[in-house]
Amino acid sequence: MNKDQMTPMERFAAYAKGESIDRLPCVPVVGNGAARALGCKISEFRGNGPLIAAAHLAAYRRFGYDTVRIFTDLYVLAEAMGATVCYPRDETAHLETPAIADIADIGRLRPANPWRDGNLPALLQALEIAQKEVGHQVPVSGAVVCPLTTASFLIGTDKLIRMMRRDPEGVHRLCEIALESALNYAEAVLDTGSTFGLTEPVSSNTIISPAYFEEFSYPYLKRLCEFMHGRGKPVTLHICGKTERIWPLMADAGADCISIDEMEDLRKAKESVGHRVRVMGNVATAETLLQGSVADVRAETLDCIRKAYDNPKGFIVASGCSLPTEVPFANIDAMLDMTREVGWPITADKLAAMT
């Protein structure tokens, strides 16, 4: 932390006002890799809020990035509603069995109670601890899995996609109950004093068409954004994979910042919706941060800054998605170090002179 002249809170506040900052915000999206900073096993996070908090605090203090994001896996809401999730000893959890086998069984589903069900109470406890420890200096954030993705885990992704054509009303029924769970968890996150980001990987155009996104995802994202704005909080929305054709709809839904995955072009995002939303991204998670050298990470971080530093609504240097668990610490350091070296203010001439 002594490498920076501002805390993340100070940096974000000044940046939002158009005031001078020491560097751009930088968020390598550390997920379960936080276990490596503490030296524990990922499976130990199950039901253990203090350990989740300790790991993420250790990672934040080790690297000095700009958001502490408390998140373990995409299945937390679906699990809280009856899906079966497998917890390997030292890998991220994965879905084992959806909550229901057929839409006829939807009556068995109940919205999640975040203070009681599944691993949600542990995540809330972790948020409370992190907020108390470092919330005065860095934003502490939960991750809310959005309705279409949770719906896919309630009945199975392949089955849900087939239902979009054969039983669209069934898809909406699943999304409605998933939305209730998302809103319940979002409210609980805010009650800890933290904020949250929205994650909706099944809405990717790698998986569904823009038309299906507009019909089955957009209405529920909009309602989540309206809830967040009603509590006076901005919204960051991440959708994995290809998203170029839905960037305007992501902005229309109410996102204040959109997180762009690595296969998309930050310059195109800036040109398309940069006058409406802050842009965040998009150093490649596997090819560069996991498998690349320090020099590779530095070069790609600089390239991202060149493409989007002048985005009208602002830019956050970030990984394209959550980091793989085994990303070398030196590569996370390199991403932050390059952002620090670029510093502020940023000009085209300054960037052109850097290698």
Automatic annotation (TrEMBL):
Every Uroporphyrinogen decarboxylase (URO-D) domain range: 7-341
Any one biological process term the GO annotation gives: porphyrin-containing compound biosynthetic process
Protein name: Uroporphyrinogen decarboxylase
InterPro entries, alphabetized: Methanogen_methyltrans, UROD/MetE-like_sf, Uroporphyrinogen_deCOase
GO MF, any single term: uroporphyrinogen decarboxylase activity
Signal sequence bounds: none
